[in-house]
């Protein structure tokens, strides 16, 4: 089974505040940063995983996705542990995001969620910050 490594990060400046996501799909050499509007940090983290899984599926196609394992690496311990069923999701805004990710996992052969140290997630973090900076420049 082919394996794709994806790094994701979401962040907000203020909590809630202006938020963005960053996704680096290492195996495919693809980078994405997108402004999200006003969100909490955790909402942005979830949005990044959703965006990344949808992008991978679009890039490789539905048939190949079924035969592909995806390793989602992130530096949010909370989100990673929630996705791995180690922590409950008590925030009502996060519950539908969790379900969205869970449904997306069914499109792939396997999906694994791995928490990495912040310094190992610098590419995705930089993409999220660049998206926030671009949006801020539009306002001035």
Describe the structure.
- Helix 1 (41-60) packs parallel to helix 4.
- The protein is built from five helices and five strands.
- It has a five-stranded mixed sheet.
- 39% of the residues are buried.
- The chain has a single domain (2-139), classed as Ribonuclease H-like superfamily/Ribonuclease H (Nucleotidyltransferase, domain 5), CATH 3.30.420.
- A hairpin with a 4-residue loop joins strand 2 (17-25) and strand 3.
- The model has no long low-confidence stretch (mean pLDDT 96).
- The termini are far apart.
- It has 140 residues and is of the alpha/beta class.
- The longest helix has 20 residues, at 41-60.
- It has helices at 41-60, 62-65, 77-83, 95-105, 122-139, and strands at 2-12, 17-25, 30-39, 68-74, 110-115.
Number of domains: 1
The radius of gyration computed from the alpha-carbon positions, rounded to a whole number of angstroms, is 14 Å
CATH class: Alpha Beta
Q: Report the uncertain regions.
A: none
Distance between the termini: 48 Å
**CATH topology, anyone?**
Nucleotidyltransferase, domain 5
Question: Which key phrases capture this entry?
Answer:
single chain; 140 residues; alpha/beta; Nucleotidyltransferase, domain 5; 5-stranded mixed beta sheet; globular
């Amino acid at each position: 089974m082919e394996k794709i490594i994806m790094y994701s990060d979401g962040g907000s400046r203020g909590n809630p505040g202006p938020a963005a996501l960053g996704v680096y799909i290492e195996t495919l050499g693809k980078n994405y940063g997108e402004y999200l509007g006003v969100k909490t940090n955790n909402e942005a983290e979830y949005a990044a995983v959703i965006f990344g899984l949808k992008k991978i599926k679009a890039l490789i196609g539905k048939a190949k996705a079924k035969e592909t394992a995806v390793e989602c690496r992130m530096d949010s311990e909370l989100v990673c542990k929630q996705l791995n069923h180690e922590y409950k999701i008590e925030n009502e805004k996060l519950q539908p995001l969790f379900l969205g990710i869970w449904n997306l996992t069914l499109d792939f052969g396997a999906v694994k969620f791995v928490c990495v140290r912040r310094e190992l997630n610098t590419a995705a973090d930089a993409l999220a910050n660049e998206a926030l900076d671009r949006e801020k420049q539009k306002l001035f």
